[in-house]
Amino acid sequence: MDTFLSRFAVKHGKLGISRTWVLPTTKSGESQKEKIAAYFTLSSSTVVRDDIPVEKSLPGYPVPVVLLARLAASEDYQGQRLGEKTLIASLRKSVELTDIGLPALGLILDVLDQDALKFYQHYGIFKSFTDDPMRLFVSMHVLRKI
Question: Could you give phi then psi for residue 142, rounded to 5 degrees?
Fold first, then answer.
């Protein structure tokens, strides 16, 4: 995940393909270089209508969603619920972006491993997306309640 921050986050932002939000560990104005405690990256995407686990009648063309492309918390902060706080911030930012004009039916994410899958399943809001249990979906309707 560090490689993404150092090599791609700014580049992708300048290209307009994603945006990364970071939580620094030091206060503004301190002389030392700020370290990153956690971050998340969002992007827009589209998915095939038939793959979406919702009961709504949807158009036949690809449906817009927000992609939670990256979410990471520093190992230095394990046990402090920083991953959970970063997840909630990313979900709220997704709703905020949708409310100001980015059309999206929901949010999708690709889970990296079984530990991450347990992390997301703990919240009880994510549904499997397609037949891949490592790809998850949550609707904007559900996210607006967070």
Answer: -70, -40
Number of H helices, E strands in the chain: 5, 6
Starting from the edge strand earliest in sequence, which strands make up the sheet with 63-73, in order?
19-24, 36-47, 63-73, 106-110, 132-139, 127-129
What was the pLDDT predicted at 97? 96
Residue 135 domain-assigned (yes or no): yes
For 11-41, the pLDDT digits (tens) are: 898 999 999 999 887 655 555 667 789 999 9
Q: CA 135, 140, 141, 146 torsion: positive or negative?
A: positive
pTM: 0.85
Task: Please give the mean pLDDT across all residues of the chain.
Answer: 88
Indicate whether 90 belongs to any domain.
Answer: yes
Consecutive H or E run containing 117: helix 114-121
Domain that holds residue 54: 41-143
Q: Please report, for the domain that includes residue 81, its CATH number.
A: 3.40.630.30
Total structural domains within the chain? 1
